Amino acid sequence: VLENQDLQDLIKPQNVVFHSLNFNSTLHWQPGRAGEARDTVYFVQYKVYGQSTWQNKDECWGIQNHVCDLTNETSDIREPYYGRVKAASAGIYSDWSPSCRFTPWRETIIGPPTVTVIHSNKSLILKLQAPRSPYKKKRGSKIPMTNYYDLLYQIFIINNLLEEQHRVLVYEGKDKIIKIEDLRPGISYCVEAKTYVPALDRSSVYSSRQCTTL
Residue ranges of the Fibronectin type-III domain (predicted)? Predict the structure, then answer.
């Protein structure tokens, strides 16, 4: 017969980590070494670094999921936070498994801009929109990520005539409307964009590719 202590260790959640995209921040974990019994439930708490008391996350108290949304609880984006999770199964409770320290401003992944392409016969006009955070202004619209960081946009052109289809950086800066001129009529061009954060020296993934024939 397994001792309670052994069972507590076997069901203790593993790999507790924060994932964050544009400040949408969730805590993720994996089942303990025993795998997962059907009746296993999880309990989540969080706190700001330096605080002595942990807060319960009511919506993630006794849940069966392996993810808990802590976006609202981590809205002071320059503060460091911790999350922790414990499991219960067959009336046995594990110890808490803590996450590493998580500072949203430093660690969130910033997404690419949204790109709208308008074409004329020899040029493309691109309209860029910064990714948005989950946090809202008083009037209810979501606050763009440009409120939190000095962001640059990087625009890449792919000329479909070239077999390698290599990307050429044609613009880097803050403008939201960009005109790319002297393109050849009848040629198919594709555009991709990235967001670059100089303060963190980090780029987003590429935006979805937009292709057009002039």
Answer: 12-107
Domain 114-213 has CATH 2.60.40.10: yes
d(CA 163, CA 147): 40
Percent helix, percent strand, percent coil in the chain, to nearest 5: 10, 50, 45
Q: Residue 170 burial by CB count (10 A; 0-12/13-18/19+): exposed, middle or buried? A: middle
What's the pTM value of the predicted model, to 2 decimals? 0.88
Distance spanning both ends of the chain, measured CA to CA: 74
Q: Give the residue extent of every domain in the chain.
A: 1-107, 114-213
Other CB atoms within a 10 A radius of the CB of residue 155 amount to 24
3-state secondary structure of 7: helix
85 or 160: which carries more pLDDT confidence?
A: 85
Q: Is 66 helix (H, G, I), strand (E, B) or coil?
A: coil
- Cα–Cα distance, 103 to 112 (Å, whole number): 21
212 three-state secondary structure:
strand
Asked whether residue 213 carries a pLDDT value surpassing 90, the answer given is no
Q: Which CATH number does 1-107 carry?
A: 2.60.40.10
pLDDT tens digits for range 126-166: 999 999 999 999 888 999 999 999 999 999 998 876 666 68
160 neighbors 95 (Cβ within 8 angstroms): no
What is the average pLDDT score of the chain?
Answer: 92
On whether the CB atoms of residues 24 and 71 are closer than 8 A, the answer is: yes
- State the pLDDT at residue 182: 85
